[in-house]
Specification:
Blueprint (H helix, E strand, L loop, with lengths): L7 H59 L2 H10 L17
């Protein structure tokens, strides 16, 4: 059986083709892995965003309850001992 001898050009071309194939496959695998990682990160961020939105809704409801006129008036009367103004205490200004 006779073995064909390969020239240096053929060997270099084979090595180069193999190297390019390995580089392309490595890049492809990195790209797929990066897409998966980003997908997981997006999912975590969306969950965090949903949690923050719910917290904002709760805080807005608490703010509304704390700023209700009935509560403010009750606090003013009970804790600050404020009363309704008398007739002579109100001054009207014309602007």
């Amino acid at each position: 059986m006779v073995h064909k001898k390969y020239t240096k050009k053929e060997i270099a071309a084979g090595v180069l083709a193999s190297l390019m194939t390995i580089i392309i496959l490595t890049f492809y695998l990195w790209h797929i892995t990066e897409n998966i990682r980003l997908g997981y990160e997006i999912g975590r961020c969306e969950n965090s965003l949903q949690t923050l939105r719910e917290e904002v809704k709760k805080l807005e409801a608490k703010k509304a309850s704390l700023l209700s006129l009935e509560r403010v008036e009750k606090t003013a009367r009970e804790k600050l001992n404020l009363t309704e103004p008398k007739e002579g205490q109100i001054i009207y200004e014309d602007f």
